[in-house]
Amino acid sequence: MTRFTRNLVPALCLAFAAAAFAQTPAPPAGTPPAGAPPAGQQQRPRGPRPAPTNLKALPKDTTGDQVNTIMHGFEGALGVECEFCHARNPETKRNDFASDANPKKDKARLMIKMTETINTQFVSQLNNPKAENPVTCGTCHRGSEQPAVFVPKPEERGPRPAAPAATPK
Asked: How far apart are CA 70 and CA 62, in angstroms?
């Protein structure tokens, strides 16, 4: 697992959890927590997700829970759902996460490798080698499936050169 992935995922999770906790009002006394099973029913404890298969852009030792967290980060950065990159199994009508049938999955893998290369080979060479703000999918996509084309503001373009003066004949 790269330093980028190791540092980014927990930081994002903590930031989202802290923001959600700070904005959630406390429930009245005696109220069961949201999402709790009805009285008399117990919810089955959920174990860890199974080990992922067919990992090509993420490290092979990434756990199922880590992959799930990373993928949800991609969803937010691109404003898409799982079906954007993952093919559906026609028999089960569920996402087949290991399948390579969707060509967008290969493009996503390329983009993952690109951002990792940018962070490890280029951002690391800047003045602050421990960059606080690494390049992520959201850097360009900003919650959109297709990144918007960059158009500088008029005042950022600078003065235009003067037209050459006409020479008298």
From this structure: 10
